[in-house]
Amino acid sequence: MKAEVRSKAIQKLLDEIGQNASETATWTKREKFSETTMAAIAKVKRDRFMQPGYETFAYINRPQPIGHGQTISQPYIVALMTDLLGLKGDEHVLELGSGSGYQTAILAEVLPDGHVFTVELIPQLVFRATNSIKELGYSNVTLKQGDGHKGWPENAPFDAIIVTAAPERTPDALIEQLKLGGRLVIPLGQAHSHQDLVIVEKDLKGRVLMEKLIAVSFVPMVHS
């Protein structure tokens, strides 16, 4: 994609995300997203993470197929979920469902002094995401193939966890691997039915608090 075309498309996308944020503020309690989040959305070239032949649709504010029954999430949802983590830039974050690596790259941008640990179940997507992340020069990402329900216990606990596929309930392993004071952002619900975007917080005493925000639609989180 030519630089001038990409630049105009990105600016239009940023405007749409800003409008979406304002429209959903009643439920998300965020009238706009942080400068850090929006800068990451502006910088990461989404067309590099698209399925071949879909690059021209990269900056449309919609999810798109990436093959293997999976999708690259709507940019507004990526921005929202990233912003809800409340990151400062030096945290260790677990992402479950790397897909083609777009959300991973956004997190890598937001965490210049931190690290992203990301897990993807589908081997072909692991290969694609690994190559894209490497080609774009992100050195603060570690990716592996695995079952997201299990998290990544070897690198736990995590300051924050983000899940980009929907289980019906929050996996116990993820609660266990979340630091005291940490935050988990996850879609919950049945496939092809009602799902909610949920914030799960573990307070400093280890108590778990959950808050539903908005209705969403994600591919199901499946076991290996």
In short:
The chain is α/β, with parallel strands linked by helices. It has helices spanning 3-23, 25-28, 35-43, 75-84, 102-110, 123-135, 172-176; strands at 64-67, 70-72, 92-96, 115-120, 141-145, 158-163, 178-189, 195-202, 208-216. β6 (158-163), α7 and β7 form a beta-alpha-beta unit.
Structure write-up:
This protein is an alpha/beta fold and 224 residues long. The protein has one domain: Vaccinia Virus protein VP39 (Rossmann fold, 3-Layer(aba) Sandwich), CATH 3.40.50. The protein is 32% helix and 26% strand. It is built from seven helices and nine strands, in the order αααββαβαβαββαβββ. The protein has a seven-stranded mixed sheet with strand order 5-4-3-6-7-8-9. The chain has a two-stranded antiparallel sheet with strand order 1-2. β1 and β2 form a beta hairpin. α1 packs across α4 and α3 crosses α5. The radius of gyration is 16 Å and the shape is globular. The chain starts with a helix and ends in an 8-residue tail after the last strand. The mean pLDDT is 96.
Strand ordering within the main sheet: 5-4-3-6-7-8-9
State the CATH superfamily name.
Vaccinia Virus protein VP39
End-to-end distance, in Å? 36 Å
SSE order, as H and E?
HHHEEHEHEHEEHEEE
In CATH, what is the class? Alpha Beta
Described by the principal axes of the CA atoms, the overall outline is globular
Q: Sheet with the most strands?
A: 7 strands, mixed
Poorly predicted runs of 5 or more residues: none
Q: How many individual helices?
A: 7
Structural class: alpha/beta
The overall average pLDDT, rounded, is 96
> Domains counted in the coordinates: how many?
1
